[in-house]
Amino acid sequence: MSRRDIGTDDYRVRVRPGKGSRPRTKIRPDYSQKPRGQVYRIDRGRYHVRILETQIEVVAVKARELPHRSVAIGDICAMTGDLSGRKDTLARIAAVDPRSSQLRRTSEEGEASGTERVMVANASQLFIVTAVAQPEPRFGMIDRCLVAAYDGKMHPILVLTKCDLADPQPLIDQYSMLDLDLVTSYSGGIDTKSGMEILDPRAIANVQSLAADKTSVLVGHSGVGKSTLINALIPAAQRLTGAVNEVTGRGRHTSTSAVAFDLPGGGIMIDTPGVRTFGLAHVGPEQLLQGFPDLAQIASSCPRGCTHAQVESECVFDLCTDSRILLRVSSFRRLLAVASKADWE
Q1: For the segment 16-71, what is each residue's pLDDT rounded down to a tens digit?
Q2: Are 183 and 202 in contact, with CB atoms under 8 Å apart?
Q3: Who contacts 71 (Cβ-Cβ below 8 Å, separation ≥6)?
Q4: Cα angle vertex 212, ends 207, 214, to 5°?
Q5: What values do phi and psi take at 253, rounded to 5?
Q6: Rounded distance, CA 131 to CA 162, Å?
Q7: Percent of the residues in the chain that have a pLDDT greater than 70, as a whole number
Q8: For residue 265, what are the contacts with CB-CB under 8 A and spacing of at least 6?
């Protein structure tokens, strides 16, 4: 065995021995019998988890072997460590169970541009909240969220807020033919004690009925009224609300992280931060068309191999004369062309 070259012949130099290579074992720990918990909040590397069997809430860290961003709000996880929930104790997320659904989006801004991210897991419904005015509705945002809902195996529900400021009928007509539920909400003024907006009780009752005993997610632009809706559904949530900028017509971010809340009548509502982009770079053309079920039926008559893009000469979309369908075709082709870029109407 040759002597290790340490770069000097000085006998006084002592070299720390190298680390031995320990063979890796193929046997992995079995977490199938460990207690399960559901993640309801993520805050600066700490995961707030509710143990399903005991309903004890614990703070946990992620196991080192789990990849970065492999745990999302709503995930069911195998839990180890201290599950007592006492102050200054930490549990550990050892494994993540398979998801029944997931809401994904691709970042389009900053250094994380192009990175796919799972926002919420294991939710069955997606409430897409949009204002009829202040800020103005963006059909591109609604269409992107619909695509994400269908792609993530979630039922979409469109909630139109601030209907007292403008006529909601154009929006209703645009999406009434789709397989989704639709809720309209009118403002009832401002509460003199709390200073918070009062929402139409009928709209609150409709949302409560649709969300009962289900896990739902709220998404929407900043300033459309998501936090106001959460506060009306769950007064104890106390989510911050903000005004819309009169110059830009955009809302200010008031919610900084996704949080899951228990609904009084049963069920879970997950409030997400207001978004200004909702990238779909992870969704292929075929999956994109699934987000437009009204167009998918028409596209079945297209020639084989038709991409439904603007340049196709025999695409049946170009034969449509219905104005509502033409708007949907325009939105679909815009997403098809620039799905990996920010594109708002």
Answers
A1: 776 666 666 677 789 999 999 999 999 888 999 999 999 999 999 999 999 988 99
A2: no
A3: 39, 42, 47, 62, 77, 93, 96
A4: 110
A5: -65, 125
A6: 6
A7: 79
A8: 208, 212
Q: How many other β-carbons are positioned within 10 Å of the β-carbon of residue 107?
A: 16
Query: Three-state DSSP class for 149?
Result: helix
Dihedral of CA atoms 127, 309, 343, 286 in degrees, nearest 10, equals: 40
Q: Give residue for tokens 């021995």.
A: 17
Amino acid at 264: P
Instruction: Read off the tokens for 294.
Output: 């009204």
- By the 8 A CB rule, do 148 and 278 touch? yes
The pLDDT of residue 195 is 58
Give the HSE-up count for residue 8: Cα atoms under 13 Å, Cβ half-sphere: 6
Alpha-carbon span 254 to 249, nearest angstrom = 16
Note the residue count of the chain: 345
User: Range with the lowest mean pLDDT among 56-60, 119-123, 248-252?
Assistant: 248-252
